[in-house]
Amino acid sequence: MVQGVAKFRRKFREAPKIIHERLARGLERIGDEVVAEIDLLNPLPETIKIGWTWGDAPRGSVTLGSVGKQGYETLKITIFATAATSEYPAGFPAVAAWFEFGTNLRVQKTTGREVGRITAQPYFWPTIRANKKSIRSRLQGILRRAIKKANQL
């Protein structure tokens, strides 16, 4: 009979749990750090709220980026922005996109009066682009260490 089968089966059963737990903790840390960096560039910090959540973004927000896929036993973190104002306490996501990408000249339909233009003040994509390689390498390192830990059982 082959020796070590029970030990192998135990390792094989426990490995996905350990890897999933370590990746989840790593994604939480990375999410917190990226949100903090995006918040530094936020043009309206008192109005535009930036955060992250597991799965899909909350209702009333615009999703600016996500990592992972939705499905069985997958990890997906979504970074989102919403603008809570006195008129829209539940959130008005268009404001976050207006400041990220800018708007054309806006004209009121009834009076024909020009209301202005919002120039683009990107705060999300520059941060994501600057950190993309770092995030990927950190996740690979977390995965590598988690596999080594699972193999040591």
Description:
- There is one protein chain.
- The protein is an alpha+beta fold and 153 residues long.
- The protein has helices at 5-41, 94-101, 125-151; strands at residues 48-54, 62-67, 77-83, 106-107, 114-116.
- Helix 1 (5-41) packs antiparallel against helix 3 (125-151).
- It is elongated.
- The mean pLDDT is 83.
The stretches of 5 or more residues where confidence is low (pLDDT under 50) are none
Radius of gyration, Cα only, in angstroms? Answer: 22 Å
- Determine the number of helices (DSSP H or I, runs of at least 4 residues): 3
Biggest sheet descriptor: 3 strands, antiparallel
What fraction of the residues are assigned to beta strands by DSSP?
A: 15-25%
| String of helices and strands | HEEEHEEH
| Assembly form of the protein | single chain
Give the structural class: alpha+beta
Order of adjacent strands in the largest pleated sheet: 1-3-2
Helix content: 40-55%
Task: Tell me how many strands there are.
Answer: 5
Question: What value does the average pLDDT take?
Answer: 83
Span between termini: 22 Å
Global outline: elongated
